[in-house]
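ping. complex inputs:
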Amino acid sequence: MAEFKLHCFAASGNSYKAALFLALANADWEPVVVDYFGGETRTEGWRDNLNEMGEIPVLEHKGLKISQSGVILDYLAEVTGKFGPRTDEEKRDIWRWILFDNHKFTSYYATLRFMYGLQKTGDTPVTQFLRDRAIGAYRIVDKHLAANKFLVGDRLTIADLSLIGYVYMPEETGIDLAEFPHIEAWKRRISDLPGWRHPHELMPGKKAF
Amino acid sequence: MAEFKLHCFAASGNSYKAALFLALANADWEPVVVDYFGGETRTEGWRDNLNEMGEIPVLEHKGLKISQSGVILDYLAEVTGKFGPRTDEEKRDIWRWILFDNHKFTSYYATLRFMYGLQKTGDTPVTQFLRDRAIGAYRIVDKHLAANKFLVGDRLTIADLSLIGYVYMPEETGIDLAEFPHIEAWKRRISDLPGWRHPHELMPGKKAF
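pong. complex structure:
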């Protein structure tokens, strides 16, 4: 049995945050496929057993069941000694970016990609709202990456692994990522790391409805 | 000069999270009013000096400038010894709720309240989308509070102080909060604490456009 079990599926960028950590850290882990599109995370049983918030990923390790990608990343950094903060200032900076990611960067983009790219809603007032907000968040990150190779401390940390969740996903969002050259360069910097793999190669399960 | 300076304004629930911590901890602090509605956080000067993410609150303490309400709450718990986790499990649980708050509970509700309650947009596809998402998040929290007096550890922690940000705000959102009796009871539990004050009493500045 693998040391770490990750409940995840191929189309989930939030799961990819943890899966990519485990891959880059060369950890002993295995994925447990969740049938998200079939409604598995919305069942009472799943919520009672794994995560009352009804979200994936969930990490199992040494009898613990840990949810929220940001908490999983922080936990993995602690137990593996990799990609974590080296100082109190770095710790605050890493959490600052993880919170910004959960509030704005991943949040708006992932919901836009779900509606526009997977549900194929076409453009609606809601997708336009989400796109405007996502672009605002991408501009802030692009500006930061113009002056920094990585988000914190000039090396890969869990802050990068949080924001990286959805940026390799292939679905159309109506956002031209070429407008964010520093984000594009950062994506290449990360995909060049030894052990990097695309979300679809790293996690099993459905890629769409 | 006060020990802590908090850049904030009366209508900001994200600022209230930190302001209420400082009030309940009986800390030596002072507010610095931000003219958010006048666009102050969108200026280059403000972003370069205080927060590149363009958000409030910002806490100043001992030469540090700390942004993101979740990071501020964690920092305040560390330096005051109040309302923080007592174990590693509580630490993960607190961050889990703070992340859920930033992603879903505060996020959708605060944006809905901004559009529907302050900008007076009326009902639009976007406010309906935000309301549905906010109600989903409120249901999860209400269910958790049916079995727990506070979010983590049966006492007030920074997890509660994160989720409490917008729930006392008076603006109309089109959500009937009476549908969430356990959230209502938790609000009363917190407003009964010695030192509690309403956001409008605790922070100066404009309450609306």
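Chain B has two domains: 4-83+196-202, 88-191.
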